[in-house]
Automatic annotation (TrEMBL):
The keyword Repeat applies. This is MORN repeat-containing protein 3. The keyword Repeat applies. It comes from Oncorhynchus tshawytscha. One of its GO terms (cellular component) is acrosomal vesicle.
């Protein structure tokens, strides 16, 4: 009796084309119809590993780590400047699930930047912010606001040290008026000093000290005859 061969299963062309179209490993630049382009590693047709993405319409570029199609790990995001037609770094640091996460530095302008912790695209945790007017805040953040313990040093060197809540002074704190040589220590509610004491502090070195020093308070003892 003749031996009959089992017919081989022929893979449909649609599945064959789909399998061959799957992008895995390092690839040369892949261009999109909208002008965007990506060069780097792939896994199952998703950006995964090291890679560089250019968004043509947004004028932006990201160079760094990817995970299943999203920015994840360490990377740098830059924007194209219309004046110089060159890319300027905007953010460099950690990413998670396509959002800024972990430690990173964000450049708002040539004179303003934030370096510290991020959570889901927002400044949260510890961080230091340099403002354009010369002020510097260093301390805790929550959802882009000063929250917790922190110090705000003004451009004139006066500073506040103490508690913050949702961007305002709240709780116990100290305000050093170094230009006048005085110190206020007390309690704050929603950015307003409610109760506390004022004393001289560094009055001899102050550029514009008060006319008269604050008298010291002494407790008198009375002798009983």
């Amino acid at each position: 009796m003749p031996h009959l061969k089992k017919p081989r299963k022929v893979e449909p062309l649609s599945k064959l084309w789909d399998r061959k179209a799957q992008k895995c490993g390092l690839r040369h630049t892949v261009y999109s119809v909208n002008g965007d382009e990506y060069t780097g590693d792939w896994l199952d047709s998703k950006k995964h590993g090291k890679g560089t993405q250019i968004w043509k319409k947004a004028g932006a570029i990201y160079d760094g780590d990817w995970k299943y199609g999203k920015r994840d790990g360490y990377g740098t995001y830059s924007k194209l400047l219309s004046v110089t037609n060159e890319y300027s770094r905007e953010y460099s640091g950690g990413w998670e699930n396509d959002k800024k996460h972990g430690f990173g530095t964000y450049f708002y302008s040539d004179t303003a930047c934030y370096e510290g912790e991020w959570s889901e695209d927002q400044r949260s945790g510890w961080g230091r912010m340099y403002y354009e007017n010369g002020d510097i805040y260093e301390g805790e953040w929550l959802k882009n606001k000063h929250h917790g313990q922190g110090m705000l040093r003004l451009a004139n060197e006066n500073r506040y040290e103490g508690n913050w809540k949702y961007g305002k002074k709240n709780g116990h704190g100290k305000f050093f008026y170094l230009d006048k040589g005085q110190l206020y220590e007390g309690f704050w509610v929603d950015g307003v000093a409610k109760c506390g004491t004022v004393s001289d502090f560094g009055r001899a070195e102050a550029p514009t000290p008060t006319i008269y020093p604050i008298p010291k308070v002494h407790t008198l003892s009375f002798e009983v005859f």
